[in-house]
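Sample log: CmpA/NrtA family ABC transporter substrate-binding protein.
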Amino acid sequence: MMSITQRNGSLGAPALVTQEGSRVLRAGFIPLVDASVLIAAAEFGFARKEGLTLELVKDVSWANVRDRLAFRQFDIAHMLSPMPVASMLGLGSNPSPTITPFSLGKGGNAITLSTRLFGRMQEVASLSDQASALDNAKALAAVLAEMRDAGEMPPTFGMTYPFSSHNYEFRYWLAAGGIDPDRDVKMVVVPPPLTSDALAAGAIDGFCVGAPWNMVASERGVGRIVAAKQDIWPSAPEKVIGMRPEWAEAHPETVSRLIVALDAAARWCDDPANHDGLAEVLATDRFIGAPVDIIRHVLAGEFSLDAQGHRRVIDRYFTFHGDMANYPRPSQALWIYAQMIRWGQTGFSDKGQASAAAAYRPDLYRNAIGLPDSVGQDDFRVEGSLETDAFMDGFIFNPAAIEDYANAFPVRSHLAQRASSADTDT
């Protein structure tokens, strides 16, 4: 280990430097497989090659990660893709400006329901074991209608954070089946490592979370996986590297070296030949603390949907590098902004649109990797227009018509367009 000499905590201060001259970056992360690129950069020498030392700190909740980055306990952080967007819009408790110059990849989320609830869906809707994600959502809608008629309490569903891909993907899936997430069910925040236990205890009836926790629940026999991220929108950004904009401006060389290191680690993580070694590291208590076999399976996209032996294979369930997976495309940030509008977390404005787009910094990525500026001509592309990249309900997102898009859905928030999230943020 390199010994630490000094940390200057003042605004814009240089990052911590070891006696040997390597720049140390303190990075917060949540124990999920989608932190693989960050972990691999630290553990397999990619950061060291760029003169960096990544000091990884495992945390318990996204709110903690957000706050510790804001209060300068972290230099960078493993973050949910909507978190920088929310921060630049001033949403949530303790919002602090945050940008991302690097996406950690695509894929990794899934929706799991309790075996009891799924069994009821099978009975009410004659649901087959091979039903699609949309069929599953419609079956759940039929169960909810039966529950309302019988005067039963609606189910409670867990997601990881109000400004998360999990929240928006869970809502998107529910709404595609005709379910109003704000009226027909109850949505609560549950930290990722606690979701399987909460489902087993009956505290929640389902959840949307990243790997490996869906498969942990299914292999325990307490849950059934009913939809994956790829079923909802294959290109949806998942996790990103977040940093304070003034820190990035004060350390441009460090940011560039970090992006180069992460890019190399992402290429390495994308190679199936490296998945056994990656899984061994991820499975340790220092990082995820889950069975190594489960991690191997999720890296390969091999799912045990439940404990009855039903399986599914999703090609490239994780894409760590290919197909521009690391490029922080502003049109994706604007899709997130549109979902915030759709669900009443904010309203549309020209200023809000500009702030949301500014959260994603493809210019920093292009400069570090050496991509031509012409690549940026596609930064505000229409999303979901290709058959291989379609949204599950067939909608297409045009970032030039955000307000019309958000208002076009038959199921959307009936709350005030500008609603405080302070009561639900955690």
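Observation: Residues 1-14, 416-426 have pLDDT under 50 and may be disordered.
Observation: The longest strand covers residues 23-29.
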